[in-house]
Amino acid sequence: MSSKLEAYLEEISHYLSGRNEREEILSEIRSHILEKAEREFGGVTDASLEQAIAAYGPARKVAERYLDGRPIIAPAYKRYLFRYTTLLFAAHSLLAVFSVVFKENFIVFPFVFIPRLGIIEVFMYLPTAFLTDLGIVTVILYFITQSGKDIKLPWPKFAVELEEVKPKREFFMSRIATAAGLIVMLALTDGALYLFSRYGTIFLVNLKNPRPLFTPDAGRRLSLIVIAWFAASTLALLAKLFTRSRWVDVVSNAVSLALISLLLRQPFDNLFAVAEFESDLSGIKFGVKLALLFIALMVTIDLIKNLVFIGRTKLAVSLKGHAEENGR
Amino acid sequence: MTDPDIGSLETEMNRGFLHLLVLALLEKEMYGYSMVKHIERLGYKVEENTLYPLLRRLEKNGWIASKWDLREDRPRKFYVITAEGRALRSSLLEIWKNQNRILDEVIKENANVQQA
């Protein structure tokens, strides 16, 4: 028996794994290919078998014809994937924030376990949590799809649909608003750069006779991070003058989160050059961290929203493509 | 407007036709390869890797039955229509005739419109 025929049948067998009638299917294909090789290609030889196999088709395609074409998630449930993941991740993020603020573990066995997290750890934790939430929702929708039952799932609305949050304005109008924002951010970035070049820091007290707020080293580090943040926002606004792509927002959000995490990583001890601030250090430290955490949370929500928009747009395009294919 | 993709439309149309054709052919016992060749001689082409899964589905539903013939040096699986299969074939033929009639009438109507 030709090793090519056996290899071909082995490949089909691999794709058919789990099916009881696999051996019988393979026997029938073997019989067909041998007969075809003998009758149409002049006898059972390696060359004729190769021709017969080629005519029969690629192993994966052959196997697929025997498998029922039920999708992993039914098209009607695909939109639930993003909606439910968003809701679950929102709840997850909220609990993560609580675990930072209250310094407590949160356990809802066996669904949620959020360990006591520090500010930095929470940024490491959230992407993992997002993937977990996506996985949980996918598994649930998979089982619903495979059950074949017509299950009507609830469709929670966030007061208004996401599409209604930002109604589509004319690109021209939105560009005017973007241009105004760009001018403000350019002014802020330029002002910060001017202060930094002149004083080595952008954090100053007593504007008549300016003095640095922070010690020289800390002032320089913090100033550079804030200037980078301003510059990134300015560049994002500049890009938005030319494109409406949400990827610009995603990149801007990611850069902002990275810079906020850098700010939070800065040592807060021996920070102030001004004595009266140094005496209130613990209160200021808490306030600044809380404010930065709040900004980070807002940016994260915006990032998730943009990713959901991109995902839904891609899904809509792919569903449209499938509909057109099926309509043919 | 996009060009009509005859290939995929034909595949859609063939799906139902092939069911009916196989049920009609299997009034006498046949095996896969002989069916492919017989259909070819009738001026129609069926892909081998489409026919066998179809035979399996028809058998699963009890419309055809099968048995292995091991008398020759190469084992062959023979298929034949069952009583349920004959009943189904009659129903499908009725549907097919009705569809043909409707289509004929519409084509005649169109011809009259063009003449008027």
Overview of this protein structure:
The complex is a heterodimer of chains A (328) and B (116). With 328 residues, chain A is mostly helical. Chain A has helices spanning 3-15, 22-40, 46-56, 59-66, 75-101, 119-147, 162-165, 171-199, 216-240, 246-265, 275-279, 281-327; strands at 106-108, 112-114, 204-205, 211-212. Chain A has three domains: 3-66, no CATH class; 75-156, no CATH class; 166-327, no CATH class. Chain A is 72% helix and 3% strand. In chain A, the strands form two sheets. Chain A has a two-stranded antiparallel ribbon. In chain A, a hairpin with a 3-residue loop joins strand 1 and strand 2 (112-114). Chain B has one domain: Arc Repressor Mutant, subunit A, CATH 1.10.10. Chain B has a three-stranded antiparallel beta sheet with strand order 1-3-2. In chain B, a hairpin with a 6-residue loop joins strand 2 and strand 3. Chains A and B meet through helix 2 and helix 4 of A and helix 1 and helix 3 of B.
Which terms would index this structure?
heterodimer; A: about 325 residues; two-stranded antiparallel sheet; 4 strands; B: alpha+beta; 4 helices; 3 strands
In short:
The complex is a heterodimer of chains A (328) and B (116). Chain A has twelve helices and four strands, in the order H-H-H-H-H-E-E-H-H-H-E-E-H-H-H-H. Chain A has 328 residues and is mainly alpha-helical.
How does the SSE layout of this entry go?
The complex is a heterodimer of chains A (328) and B (116).
Chain A (H helix, E strand, L loop, with lengths): L2 H13 L6 H19 L5 H11 L2 H8 L8 H27 L4 E3 L3 E3 L4 H29 L14 H4 L5 H29 L4 E2 L5 E2 L3 H25 L5 H20 L9 H5 L1 H47 L1
Antiparallel strand pairs in A: 1-2, 3-4
Helix pairs in contact in A: 1-2, 1-3, 1-4, 2-3, 5-6, 5-12, 8-9, 9-10, 10-12
Chain B lengths: L5 H20 L4 E2 H10 L6 H13 L3 E6 L6 E6 L1 H33 L1
Antiparallel strand pairs in B: 1-3, 2-3
